[in-house]
Amino acid sequence: MPKVEAHANGSFCWMELATTDQAAAKHFYSTLFGWTPRDLPMGPGGSYTMFQLSGEDASAAYTMSEEERKTAPPHWNLYIAVASADETAKRAVELGGVVIAGPFDVASFGRMAVIGDPTRAVFCVWEAKEGPGATVAGEPGTACRADLYTGDPARAKQFYESLFGWKISPGDRGYRHIQNDGEFIGGILSLEPGEQAVPPNWNIYFLVKDCAASTAKATELGAKVYEGPRVVEPVGTFSVVADPQGAVFSLFEEHA
């Protein structure tokens, strides 16, 4: 399992669960993905849980504040690597986005900002210092891609291409592929009329060996299945689920 030393600018570098029950989340994800939780002190009486695979950082979790709970349900935060959090936040505003929080330093690990795109989907940017983000990739239990669900894919395309230098190209059935420096990292999908009650969002995919088995296991652990397992040839099989607290994510099994 090779260690990831750094992430290319514009790539998805970190995944962070915002939850209402950190203890329950630790049990759910540790059982589902084989993650080992390691708690780090964070503020008065709180902790930041690092989820690890073979001693390397795969993702994290924290308990949402009362203020956060008023504006958002439990969810996964997606971090995108940048050279400068300050410059990226400034550019995002120029492109029609909004800075929700930051930029601010996270101890000596890095500098970040929370940004809303013009279609209202939220993401984070990460300027690495001592903390590169995820230090493991390409293994079951690691994040492998992310898809943006939005009511205005054309506006989103313009924003993200200008902000990160991504190349976003059309695929089958309205799917738009995202490439960062030639690497396919995710896509953009349009929220259909019947889905407009769902706010625009980034959905993170985690690798698994067997999507059907992992989906069944997630269900046994209290998850709700929204879609799948669904086969998309020749790419793979995926499902969309929500953990017991309601945070949505996807399971993805690559086809050889």
Helical amount:
10-25%
Alpha carbon gyration radius? 17 Å
Average pLDDT metric: 94
Distance between termini? Answer: 19 Å
Give the total of domains: 2
Low-confidence stretches: none
Entry keywords:
256 residues; alpha+beta; 2,3-Dihydroxybiphenyl 1,2-Dioxygenase, domain 1; 8-stranded mixed β-sheet; globular
Description of the molecule:
This protein is of the alpha+beta class and 256 residues long. The chain folds into two domains: 12-128, 2,3-Dihydroxybiphenyl 1,2-Dioxygenase, domain 1, CATH 3.10.180; 143-254, 2,3-Dihydroxybiphenyl 1,2-Dioxygenase, domain 1 (Roll), CATH 3.10.180. It contains five helices and 16 strands. Strands 2-3-4-1-5-8-7-6 form an eight-stranded mixed sheet, covered by helices on one side. The protein has an eight-stranded mixed sheet with strand order 10-11-12-9-13-16-15-14. The chain is globular, with a radius of gyration of 17 Å. The model has no long low-confidence stretch (mean pLDDT 94).
